[in-house]
Amino acid sequence: MKRPTVMLGLAILAALGLVLATQLIVDAPREATMGVVQKIFYFHVPCAWLCFLSAFLCAIASVRVLTSRDPRALASLDATAELTVLFGACVLVSGPLWARKAWGAYWQWDVRLTTSLLLWLIFAGVLFVRKYGGAGGTRLAAGLAIFGAADVPLIYASVSLWRTIHPKTTVVKSLEPAMRPAFWTSLLTFTIAYLVLLAMRTALAHAERKLDDLHRAAEDLEDHTA
Amino acid sequence: MKKLVLLLLLQGGLAVADVVPVKPADKDGFQPVSDKDLERARVDETIPGANLIAGAYGFIFGAVILYAWNIGRRAKRVEGELDNLSARVAKKLDELNAASKKS
Predict the structure, then answer these.
(1) Which of A93, A221, A224 sits opposite B56 (nearest CB)?
(2) Distances (CA, A) of A13 to A21, A41, B24
(3) Which of A25, A85, A99, B23 makes a 20 to 30 Å CA pair with A212?
(4) CA nearest B57: which of A186, A181, A113, A103?
């Protein structure tokens, strides 16, 4: 099967999954202490998972950028860094909205929240360096992305290592059976949507590289004829 | 007599302690509750949860859709530039070939 057909199929699957997930979230029982606002969990956690996955994939691409001159690795770095920032922003917006109700404040300088913000800032930095860093910017961005990805295990373990008001990671394992379908459908749907966005962004990066190569070829040709 | 009264009070206190339900230790995880019970408990809700959930879901949907649209727009622009440039390069190459044939 051709790649665009697969991508179209996945995009349709993601759209259908989103409709199903929304219905399951509406039907899921409310939580005793937080009420309806706890339903932010069904989107907040998948976004966090994709932010971590993206940061991890970006680190792998960055290692490849630093060790080889493979242009596919650079395309992968650009795509995953952007997606880390996108899903990180979703986490950093949905989390405080949930916290407003659960904790009575949008933000607390809690270790989980602070390290998550740090991850987002580092990957925003990666994008800035890639855009404005000039010739050496690529290697610097790759190094920064590896440094940023090292924050991911720290974020994950932060709720177990330090005293924190953020729900623990065991909350997913101990999820009530009535809440599970909404959560897992949402997680699967977001992961499919992520794969589609990653494929789209990587294809764009390849097209941009092709355009740059063609620009260089055209300039060489102009110089040759002049 | 005093001792007896104290003993009775202590006994009574212990008996009351047995009857009064002790709040269970906080369990790790979410506790589901029926909508009816929740409505009964939520007498004076100061922070509207529905607005917060709408904000969170709206932002996530908006961000993902906007990003996908942005990639599509950029891809279309790059594709157009690629086509233009390819045509220009091909034309230039033809001119060069024609010139070399003449000479």
Answers:
(1) A93
(2) 12, 22, 43
(3) A85
(4) A186
Considering only the beta carbons, identify the residue of B30, B56, B85 that sits closest to A175.
B30
ipTM computed for the complex: 0.89
Report d(CA B97, CA B102) in Å as an integer.
9
CA B25 – CA B6 distance, rounded (Å): 31
Q: What is the phi/psi pair of residue A28, to 5°?
A: -65, 145
Distance CA A169, CA B12 (A): 44
Is residue A166 predicted with pLDDT exceeding 90? no
Radius of gyration of chain B (CA): 39
Residue A159 pLDDT:
87
Mutation target among B45, B57, B60, B61 for the A interface, most CBs of A within 10 A: B60
Pick from A39, A201, A214: CB nearest B53? A39
Highest mean pLDDT, choosing among A55-59, A102-106, A209-213, B44-48: A55-59
Instruction: Average the pLDDT over A141-152 and give the result.
Output: 94
Q: Does pLDDT of B16 surpass 80? A: no
Is pTM, for the whole model, over 0.90?
no
Tell me the H-state helices in B20-48: 35-41
Nearest CA in chain B to A172: B29
A30 vs B contacts (CB less than 8 Å): 32-33, 35, 38
The token pair that represents B14 in the structure block: 């212990």
Question: Span B33-58, mean pLDDT?
Answer: 73
Residue B72 has pLDDT above 60, yes or no: yes
Distance in angstroms (rounded) separating the CA atoms of residues A59 and A107: 28
Report how far residue A58's alpha carbon sits from residue A125's, in angstroms, rounded to the nearest whole number. 13
DSSP E strand stretches across A22-130? 30-31
User: How big is the A-B interface in CB pairs under 8 Å?
Assistant: 134
